[in-house]
Write a structure and sequence with these properties.
Elements: H1 3-147, H2 153-167
Helix pairs in contact: 1-2
Length: about 170
């Protein structure tokens, strides 16, 4: 046997085996594709969709969280403004109330002062009238003693009026 025949014989053996290996490989490839690759691909696609969904959900949740945080911040700012407004309104009301109380007290004091003046004038008038009456009685008593006679009421009044004019 020569080298060429040996090579040719071995070539047919190897070529036949190679074809057989290729056919078996192709068959195995088809079986793997049908029974393993399809389910694995479906599973991987489901997993990919789930990951995409989770990422979208996380992004959506993050946006919601940011929106809620902004709303809370705005609400806090509004509540601070409302508190400031309430405090300023309370101060203004307190100032108005204080001014009203002071005005009422001044008005009351003025009223009391005027009433006291009126009462004082009335008391003075009453005192003067009372004093006139007493002076008249005293004058009549003096005049009776001096004149030793009783005067009539008209005469007494005339004497008192002349006496008061003289005293005034």
């Amino acid at each position: 046997m020569t080298f060429q025949t040996l090579f040719a014989a071995s070539y047919h053996i190897y070529l036949g085996n190679a074809i057989w290996y290729l056919i078996v490989f192709a068959l195995l490839l088809l079986l793997v594709k049908h029974y393993a690759w399809g389910p694995v691909s479906k599973m991987m696609e489901k997993r990919r969709q789930q990951v995409i969904g989770d990422l979208d959900s996380a992004a959506s949740n993050r946006k919601k969280a940011e929106t809620l945080a902004n709303e809370r911040e705005a609400a806090l700012k509004n509540s601070r403004q409302e508190a400031t407004k309430i405090i300023s309104d309370a101060k203004a009301n307190a100032q108005k109330t204080s001014s009203k109380i002071v005005a009422d007290a001044n008005e009351n004091a003025t009223s009391i002062h005027k009433k006291a003046e009126v009462e004082a004038k009335q008391a003075k008038t009453d005192a003067i009238n009372d004093a006139r009456g007493q002076v008249a009685d005293i004058s009549v008593a003096i005049a009776e003693k001096v004149i030793s006679k009783n005067l009539s009421a008209k005469d007494q009044k005339d004497l008192v009026d002349q006496f008061i004019k003289g005293v005034g």
